[in-house]
Amino acid sequence: MKINPINTNSVNPYTKQQRNVNTVKAKNAFADRIEISDAAKEMQVVSDYSQERAEKIQKLKKEIQSGQYKVDAQKVAEDMLKYYRLR
């Protein structure tokens, strides 16, 4: 004996519920936003630091090639001590 369902598929209790119109407004209220931090903004600005550094490097290259560059041993030792003490 075979039992067939009696139109149970045609009954949908959700079709009688009213739609909530406010859900559409809520979705539009939460849009994606991007905020750039102050540190990132500072990084975007072209600074004179890179220009000054390039000039200093060129000056050091000329001094090394001409043999006029002198190493300050005291300064090197102080910087090495500072480096290893901070580790």
TrEMBL record:
GO biological process: bacterial-type flagellum organization; negative regulation of DNA-templated transcription
Domain Anti-sigma-28 factor FlgM C-terminal: start-end pairs: 32-82
Short name of any one Pfam family annotated for the protein: FlgM
Protein keywords: Bacterial flagellum biogenesis, Cell projection, Cilium, Flagellum, Repressor, Transcription, Transcription regulation
Membership in a protein family: Belongs to the FlgM family.
UniProt protein name: Negative regulator of flagellin synthesis
Species assigned in the record: Ureibacillus thermosphaericus
Lineage of the organism: Bacteria, Bacillati, Bacillota, Bacilli, Bacillales
